[in-house]
Amino acid sequence: QVQLVESGGGLVQAGGSLRLSCAASGRIFSNYGMGWFRQAPGKEREFVAAINWSGGTTDYADSVKGRFTISRDNAKITVYLQMNSLKAEDTAVYYCAADRYPYRSRYEFYYWGQGTQVTVSS
Question: Is residue 64 packed enough to be buried (19+ CB in 10 Å), middle (13-18) or exposed (0-12)?
Fold first, then answer.
C-alpha cells in the first residue's frame, strides 16, 4: 500500500549535475528519516546519504561528501538528492528509502522505491 517513487535520473556527462526526487504515494513520510542508496552493476547496494525526521541532520558516504546534498522540502513530503561534480563511478541505480517509524534517532530503512538509473559518461 506504500510506494516510494524516485525520479530525475538520466544520462549526464562527468562533471555535470542531476537532482533526484523521492515522494510517496499512499502514506506520507513526513517526520520519517529518509535515505538514498545506490547499486552499480555487479555490486551490492550501498549507502549514499540520509536525512533525519526533522531535516536537521544529514549523513553522507565518504565517496559523495562535498558533492552530493540530501534535503527535504518544508512540508517534508519530498526528499531530494542534489548530485554535483558527477563521476563515472557514480553510475548506478539510485533508490530512495524511508525509515520504519517516525521520530527515530537511528535509521532502520524499511520502505523502498523502485530505483532510478543514473548514468555518468566520462
Answer: buried
Residue type, 93: V
Are 87 and 13 in contact by the 8 Å Cβ rule? The answer is no
Quickly tell me which residue has 540530501 as its cell. 70
* Beta carbons within 10 angstroms of residue 39's beta carbon: 14
Looking at this protein, which amino acid is placed at residue 52? N
From residue 58, alpha-carbon distances to 27, 42, 50, 65, 81 in Å are 23, 28, 6, 11, 11
- Kindly give the confidence (pLDDT) of every residue in the chain, 122 residues in length, as a single tens digit, with 9 standing for 90 and above: 568 999 999 999 999 999 999 998 767 888 999 999 999 999 999 999 999 999 999 999 999 999 999 999 877 789 999 999 999 999 999 999 999 999 999 999 999 999 999 999 99
